[in-house]
Design a protein that fits this description.
This protein is α+β, with helices and mostly antiparallel strands and 510 residues long. The chain is 42% helix and 14% strand.
Length: 510
């Protein structure tokens, strides 16, 4: 939150200087634009100096909320956040919003008339987003704001053209770090310094043996070029084509199902902290032609989960999202490895090895839950800078159309789309990773960790039995090889033995 305070407090100082400078030359009529727009102009100017920039549409969606630092920089100001909440001012902003999340649209509308403070809280867009997704499912046409989308769908006769965020009410004295940061994260462009580091190994045209030896066995990421040159999808998959071949088929978008045409309407207009992401595991069954227009790159064709047939966990997805959408830090399910191929657009990747937990990320001891920043931009704002001085710096890259990234099992990774992107990803199990997956599936809390399948409890036994039937002796061979490798690692090296003998000889001669 400190970054928001310092950012805006500097903007306030600049604003005061600017006012004094222009006071004589400007007529009173044009001296001060509406308060919240003036704030945004100052923020944008200051952000540019600091390496930040706001998206071009930021002003039109401004809610007028300011960070708490502005309140401290203006002696004598009153925070309507507190006065308008009354006794509820003791609650944190997050808790106030959690309570309001239990209300329906009518009660939110009524409560908005009580005070400016309640007006701000009840118009918080994520509240209305939840109402739309919970009540309308995927049957809605997004029109720029979740509140007006809900009203237009539920009350068609109501004129929502000029509803805005707060209607005609101007909010000038509401200070909240939490609400301001939510808006800021939704409207910040990626800083150039967040995109500059590219330290992943890139390879083109390597053999499968080289990939296995240098990357899959040592469990190291790599970016592969030229793997998709034969894909029909690389040439054909754009908006118009996908909408045309999909028709009325609905795809998984967060908690709902939507038609592609409706999703693109949403993605064209959305400006929010966590845009909905199209992430569908059944796309090839829903639209078979899509499944025929790509093929698994040669490096990833050993896929042992295939022995389960129709009972295998979800393993491949088509991914579509606007700029700013993506996935916050996570480890891929079931201890699998993965590949991710970009067909259109580009993605920024940040990866940490299994033994390094990313800053700001707090996994539970059993690995069942992971607490991390609300949004990807929030992580970049508040935690990315800390990694510059780490000895184990993250692996980073920008993966562009036609490129594939290999994500080894157990690696933490974050992905953000830098522009509208279309990609395919697949999780897989090879012999190099089979024992890890089996160990994962038999953990005591496997029923809470395993994902992508209805039968979480019995997946280990089903998978192990299927492997032993299809590839007799494979598990035993891999276990023996693993034991030999472990013993070799514990064995003293030649130089260790030489050093020990020298020390002993020295003591003896004395």
């Amino acid at each position: 939150m400190l970054s928001c305070r310092s950012l805006l407090s500097r903007a306030i100082k600049k604003k005061k200087k600017s006012k004094n400078k222009n006071k004589k030359s400007a007529s009173r009529k044009h001296e001060s634009p509406p308060h919240q727009l003036q704030e945004l102009e100052d923020v944008e100017d200051e952000d540019t100096e600091e390496g930040f920039s706001l998206k071009s549409s930021a002003r039109s969606h401004s809610h007028g909320v300011q960070p708490l630092g502005n309140f401290f920089c203006n002696p004598g100001s009153i925070n309507s956040r507190n006065t308008g909440l009354g006794s509820l001012q003791l609650l944190s902003d997050e808790l106030v919003l959690d309570v309001l999340g239990f209300l329906d649209a009518t009660h939110l509308g009524v409560l908005a008339t009580v005070s400016k403070s309640f007006c701000v809280f009840t118009n918080h867009e994520p509240l209305w987003r939840n109402l739309v997704l919970d009540n309308l499912k995927g049957e809605f046409l997004f029109n720029g704001l979740w509140k007006s989308t809900y009203i237009a769908a539920c009350y068609p006769s109501f004129d929502v053209e000029n509803i805005g965020v707060f209607g005609c009410l101007r909010i000038r004295d509401f200070y909240s770090d939490y609400l301001f940061q939510s808006w800021l994260c939704a409207n910040l462009e990626m800083k150039p310094e967040w995109l500059g580091r590219d330290n992943i190994i890139r390879k083109k045209g390597i053999s499968v043996e080289e990939f296995v030896l240098n990357f899959e066995e040592p469990n190291k990421p790599v970016l592969l070029e030229g793997c998709l040159d034969s894909w029909v999808a690389l040439e054909k998959w754009d908006r118009d084509y996908l909408v045309n071949v999909s028709g009325n088929v609905q795809f998984s978008v967060g908690p709902v199902e939507m038609r592609l045409e409706d999703y693109f309407r949403y993605s064209d207009q959305v400006k929010e902290e966590r845009p909905l992401y199209l992430f569908d595991p059944k796309f090839a069954q829903k639209v078979p032609i899509l499944g025929s227009e790509f093929e698994v790159p040669v490096y990833f064709r050993e896929d042992l989960f295939s022995v389960l047939g129709n009972e295998r966990p979800d393993y491949r997805w088509v991914i579509i999202g606007p700029a700013g959408s993506g996935s916050s830090f996570h480890i891929d399910p079931n201890s699998t490895s993965a590949w991710n191929a970009v067909i259109k657009g580009s993605k920024k990747w940040v990866l940490f090895p299994p033994d390094v937990v990313p800053p700001g990320v707090h996994p539970s001891p059993d690995g069942a839950e992971v607490a991390c920043p609300v949004s990807i931009i929030e992580w970049f704002m508040n935690f990315y800078g800390a990694t510059k001085n780490w000895k184990k710096r993250p692996i980073e890259c920008i993966c562009k159309a036609g490129e594939v990234i290999f994500v080894p099992n157990g690696w933490w990774h974050l992905v953000i789309n830098l522009e509208e992107s279309i990609a395919i990803t697949q999780n897989y199990v090879s012999r190099r990773n089979l024992l890890n997956v089996l160990d994962f599936l038999k953990r005591p809390n496997a029923s809470t960790l395993v994902s992508g399948t209805r039968d979480r409890v019995n997946l280990h036994d089903k998978f192990k039995n299927a492997i032993e039937t299809s590839f007799p002796g494979t598990i035993d061979q891999l276990m023996q090889k693993a034991e030999e490798k472990k013993a070799e690692e514990k064995k003293p090296s030649f130089w260790d033995s030489v050093t020990d003998s020298k020390v002993g000889a020295f003591k003896f001669s004395f």
